Amino acid sequence: MNQSIIKYVIGKVMTIVGALMLLPIVTGIIYQEKEAFAYVIVGAASFLAGQLLSRKKPKNTMFYLKEGCVVTALTWILISIIGAIPFVLTGEIPNFIDAMFETSSGFTTTGSSILKNVEALSHTSLIWRSFTHWVGGMGVLVFLLAVIPMSGGSNINLMKAESPGPSVGKLAPKIRNSASILYKIYLGMTVLEIVLLLIAKMPLFDTLCISFGSAGTGGFGVRNDSCGSYTGLQQWITGIFCALFGVNFNFYYYILDREPKKSFKMEEVRTYFCIIFASTFLIFFNILPRFNTVESALRASFFQVSSIITTTGFSSVDFNLWPSFSKVILVALMFVGACAGSTGGGYKVSRLVIAIKTVIKEANSYIHPKSVKKIKMDGECVEHDVLRSINVYTITYLVIFVVSVLLVSIEGKDLVTTFTAVAATYNNIGPGLAAVGPSANFADLSYFSKIVLIFDMLSGRLELFPMLILFHPAVLKDVFLKKKALKATK
Q1: Are 427 and 398 in contact (CB under 8 A)?
Q2: Domain ranges for the chain
Q3: What pLDDT digit, counting tens, does each position of 109-164 carry?
Q4: Rounded to whole angstroms, how far apart are CA atoms 71 and 59?
Q5: Apex CA 280: angle with CA 275 and CA 286, to 5°?
Q6: In Å, how far are 177, 250, 252, 259 from 256, measured between CA atoms?
Q7: H helices of 320-414, where?
Q8: Is 337 annotated as ligand-binding?
Q9: DSSP designation for 288
C-alpha cells in the first residue's frame, strides 16, 4: 500500500478544512461572537498540520482502488473529528461523542441532530453546521481534485471511492476537469437557490444555511421547527431545489453541453421524477382532510417527499402525525434515495431500476427458458460486472442494516424508533419516526447507539465499502506490518 500518497492526500484535506473554517470565523466577527475564537484555533491547527503532512510530494503518486477507499474513509473520519472540536471548545456541544455525531451528520449530509434547541447556538456554529452539508454534498476529495493539481491517472479511484452511486465516469478527459465541472454546476445551482430565496424575502443568514442544506441534501435547519415557519413560497423553492440536487449531475452536464437528448434519455432520472410525482399525489390525497387548503396539503406532501427521497431531511410539518399510509411511503422513500451521481444518499434509483429489471428477466426465464435477454439501461446493455457489484452491494447493505438495528435495539427503545433511527442515519436522511421524528431528535439515545449510528452515517455516505475496507484485516495487517518493517530497518 502506498502510504506516502495517503499521508499526502490527508494533509491536503486537512489544509482545505482549516481554510474552510474562515466562513464561521467571518460570521463570528460580523455577529461579534466569542465562539469564533474556537474556529480560529482549530482552523489554524488543521491548516498547519495539513501543510506539514503534505509539504513533500511523494515520488510515487499512483494509488489503486484500495488506497482510494482507505484514504477516503480516513479522510471522512478525520474531518468529522476536526469539525467536532469547535463545538466542544465553545461549550455548545460539550460531549465529544455528541459533537462528532452532529458533525458526522453534517459532513455526510444526514441532518440527524442531538440538539434540542437549535436556536440557542451561535450564528458562528450554525453557519459551520450547515456549511458542512455543502462541503460533504459533492465530496471533500472531489473538491480536492477540482482545485489542486494531482498527477496520475489513478485519481479516478478517489472519485469512485467517494462519489455516491454504482458507477463513476469521466465527464471530461481529465479527472480534474470532471471534478471542476461538477463543482461549477454545484456552485451555480447553490447561488441560484440563494438568489431565489432572497427574492422570496427569506433572511440572508437563513437563506445561506437552507441553501447549503438543500444543495448538499443535508437537512440542518436554523430554527427548531426546521422549515415549518417559512412562507409557502420559500418552502416551494426549497423543496424544488432539494429535488433538483437529487438528480444525477450528468443530466445537467449534458444540457450545458448542448446534448439535451442524452439528458432526457436517462432512465434513472425519469424514474426518479415519476417516483416523486406518484408519491406526492398518493400522500396528498391521504392527508388532504388534515389541511385547510388544497395548496397547503400539496405543498406539505411535495416538500416531505422531495426532502425524504433526496435524503435532505428538512421538515415543514410533523409528518409523524400523518396517517400510516403516508408514513409507510416516506419510510420506503428513505431506502430508495436519490439518483447516482447526485448529492443524495440512499440505495439509489439506478440500483433499484436495475434490480427490478433483473427480477423481471429471471421471471421471464422461467416462462421462456431458451430465451436470451440482456438487461438494458438508457438503451445500452448493463455489463455483468455492474450487475455483480449491485448484488454484492445489496447484500452488504442489508447485512449492515440488520446488524445496526440489532445493536441499537440493545438500548431498549421501541421498534419504530430503533428501525427508523438506523434507516434515517444509514440512508443519510435526518429525521426518523416516533422518538427520533421531525419534532424530536437523537439526543436521548445512548452513546453506544450514537457510535453505531455515526458508523452508519459514514458508511451510507461512502457507499459502504471504503469504511469496510479500512477495517479489513488484510488492510490493517498491511499497515501495521509495514510500520514494524520500517522500525526494524531503522
Answers
A1: no
A2: 389-489
A3: 999 999 999 999 999 999 999 999 999 887 766 666 655 555 444 454 454 555 55
A4: 18
A5: 130
A6: 15, 10, 6, 7
A7: 324-336, 349-367, 384-409
A8: no
A9: G
Length of the chain, in residues = 490
Q: How many helices (H) and strands (E) does the chain have?
A: 22, 2
DSSP codes, 143-166: HHHHHS---SGGGHHHHHHHS-SS
Q: Is 311 annotated as a binding residue?
A: yes
pLDDT in tens, 15-24: 999 999 999 9
Torsion of CA 207, 210, 214, 220, to 10 degrees: 170
| Letter string b/e over residues 94-119, b meaning 16 or more CB atoms within 10 A of that residue's CB | eeebbbbbbbbbbbbbbbbbbbeebe
What DSSP assignment string belongs to 368-392? STT-----EETTEEPPHHHHHHHHH
Q: Is 218 annotated as a binding residue?
A: yes
Angle at 32 between CA 29 and CA 34, to 5 degrees: 95
Mean pLDDT of 22-36: 96
Q: What mean pLDDT comes out for the span 6-13?
A: 88
Confirm if 105 and 217 have CB atoms less than 8 A apart: no
Average pLDDT, the chain: 87
312 is annotated as contributing to ligand binding: yes
Pairing of strands 380-381, 376-377: antiparallel
C-alpha cell at 278: 406518484
Tell me the residue type at 39.
Y
C-alpha cell at 280: 406526492
The residue assigned the cell 469512485 is 160
Cell numbers linked to 339: 439518483
DSSP label of 21: T
